[in-house]
Amino acid sequence: PPKSLLLGIGVMTLGVCPNAEGNLLATSLEQKWKRKLFVKALLVANTCNVLLKCVARISCEEILHKME
Q1: Which superkingdom does the taxonomy of this entry point to (predicted)?
Q2: Are the CB atoms for 12 and 29 separated by under 8 Å?
Q3: Is the Cβ–Cβ distance between 10 and 22 less than 8 Å?
């Protein structure tokens, strides 16, 4: 396998980098995972926002219907 793949596996399993190339790879992998987590957090927040708006709209419609 390519050296970078082996270093990546070492970084993920051991969390240790033997040289500068490994350190750069670890930083790159960490940034990649942080970006993925951030995007997932944004998607969850957006979904929650949409759900809250739906609940609020339904609640308002029920209140208005009862007032008629």
Answers
A1: Eukaryota
A2: yes
A3: yes
pLDDT profile of the chain (68 residues), mean per 10? 48 50 68 85 88 87 81
pLDDT attached to residue 12: 46
Q: How far are the Cα atoms of 3, 6, 19, 20, 57 from residue 9, in angstroms, in the given order? A: 10, 5, 14, 16, 49
pTM score, whole prediction: 0.50
Give Cα separations from 26 to 39, 44, 54 (angstroms). 20, 27, 42
Q: Could you list the residue range(s) of the whole structural domain that residue 45 is in?
A: 3-67
Q: Distance between CA 16 and CA 8 in Å, rounded?
A: 10
